[in-house]
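Supplementary Methods. Inverse-folding protocol.

Structures were first reduced to a discrete structure-token string of length 310. This string, shown here, constituted the complete conditioning input.
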């Protein structure tokens, strides 16, 4: 099997079975990561550049970055630009400019960095309601329309598709009944959330036997570990940012330590069609046997699992 992450260190499935198919809603989702191969982990930027090097070395194809307007995509783009080797960039614009407010940031980043992207158009409303979309949802067992659309977008890529997802989302365990900004901020554990639906991108490429990198920021254990051990994240998990419940609020600051990024609103690209997207998600869910399970790995265990095997 192709290495969708380095040495396929990201493993997942149901009922303890590796890369297994979900057969019923009673099946239990799990995920695990690591171990790394380097005794010493570099900075977040150094590990981004190392991931780029390993991705280039994993294929004889040109690599193609699927770019959105988010900061994760831009960090991925800047990492490939700094590496210096050739690559292509794909930006998909929805008909009727339904995601123009998002893709403008991707186009601006490409212009600034001297990268000429391939721009393709997609009638997103027609596609999401099509038999093809339902087939992709079924193959990937994923009911989230945004991920199903990314599967379709990857077909437009001129080379091996690379997606700028997989950033580590940490969440704080809160006592039952906790009221933010009213109750005292509690000392409690932090966890990495891995959503069953997000792994649908991996299942699609695996089941279709298509070489790809479905999640750049999960590509190596060291890249995940560099993020998790950054001083900003260390302060977060030691409860030094009062009343913060997840890692999203520090992500831009962490990225800006290593890359020149401008602040922007966080978009999904689907804000102008949410009622339709939510309807399609319900229909995909019935067709794909997908659910919204989340597997939580404690921060301390995650760091141990990602560290070099002795």
């Amino acid at each position: 099997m192709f290495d969708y992450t380095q040495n396929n260190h990201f493993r997942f499935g149901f009922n303890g079975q590796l890369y297994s198919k979900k057969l019923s809603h009673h099946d239990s989702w799990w995920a695990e990561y690591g171990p790394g191969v380097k005794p010493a982990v570099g900075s977040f930027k150094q590990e981004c550049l190392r991931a780029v090097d390993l991705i280039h070395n994993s294929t004889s194809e040109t690599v193609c970055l699927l770019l959105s307007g988010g900061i994760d995509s831009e960090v991925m783009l800047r990492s490939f630009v700094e590496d210096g080797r050739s690559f292509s960039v794909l930006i998909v614009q929805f008909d009727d400019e339904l995601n123009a407010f998002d893709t403008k940031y991707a186009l601006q980043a490409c212009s600034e960095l001297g990268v000429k992207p391939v721009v393709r158009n997609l009638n997103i409303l027609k596609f999401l309601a099509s038999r093809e979309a339902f087939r992709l949802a079924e193959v990937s067992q994923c009911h989230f329309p945004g991920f199903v659309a990314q599967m379709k977008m990857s077909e437009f890529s001129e080379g091996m598709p690379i997606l700028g997802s997989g950033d580590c989302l940490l969440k704080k365990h809160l006592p039952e009944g906790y009221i933010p900004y009213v109750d005292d901020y509690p000392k409690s554990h932090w966890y990495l959330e891995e959503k069953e639906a997000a792994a649908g991108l991996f299942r699609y490429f695996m089941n279709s036997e298509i070489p790809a990198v479905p999640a750049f920021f999960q590509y190596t254990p060291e890249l995940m570990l560099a993020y998790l051990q950054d001083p900003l994240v260390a302060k977060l998990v030691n409860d030094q940012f009062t009343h913060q419940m997840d890692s999203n609020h520090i992500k831009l600051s962490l990225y800006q330590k290593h890359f020149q990024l401008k602040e922007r609103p966080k978009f999904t690209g689907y804000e102008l069609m949410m009622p339709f997207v939510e309807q399609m998600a319900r229909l995909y869910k019935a067709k794909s046997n997908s659910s919204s399970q989340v597997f939580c790995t404690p921060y301390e265990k995650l760091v141990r699992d990602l560290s070099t095997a002795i």
